[in-house]
Amino acid sequence: MPDVRNCKRCGKIFNYLGGSPICLVCKQLDEDDYRRVKQYLYDYPGATMSQISSDLDVSVEKIKRFLKEGRLEIIGDESNLVLECESCGKAIRTGRFCNECERDLARGLQETASRMNSSTSSSSKKSEFKYLHKDTKE
Q1: What are the pLDDT digits (tens) for 98-116?
Q2: Distance CA 92, CA 82 (A)
Q3: pLDDT tens across 117-131, in order?
Q4: Residue 25: CB partners within 8 Å, gap ≥ 6?
Q5: Hey, how many other C-beta atoms are within 10 angstroms of the C-beta on 61?
Q6: How large is the greatest C-alpha to C-alpha distance in the chain, in angstroms?
Q7: Measured at the alpha carbon of residue 45, what is the angle toward residues 39 and 49, in degrees to the nearest 5?
């Protein structure tokens, strides 16, 4: 059964397929904004976030989201870093986590998956059944 929701931006009803809870029209508008920001950065390398926002009329929050999604990267002066690792708070250039925390998260997920696989395989051996043929007379 489809998951029908209201778009968080425009309020229209749409079939939610996962990801951001926004409709396809709003997603396309975001993609258009991303392409404009990307082209602006090709034309004006080293532009600041406030310049991009002002010149293109794209919100700072949206530009930060593009950074968190790993679609843009901050270059140059360390003092201009506006992103922090969501785990340890260290300044980062793109994404949501610093390299160290990203490695720790990946390692933790791998260990958890390994434990789940080993417990699943060992528990399946414990719960094996077989049919016993019995003649029953009533």
Answers
A1: 999 999 999 999 999 888 8
A2: 8
A3: 887 665 555 556 666
A4: 7, 10, 12
A5: 8
A6: 90
A7: 80
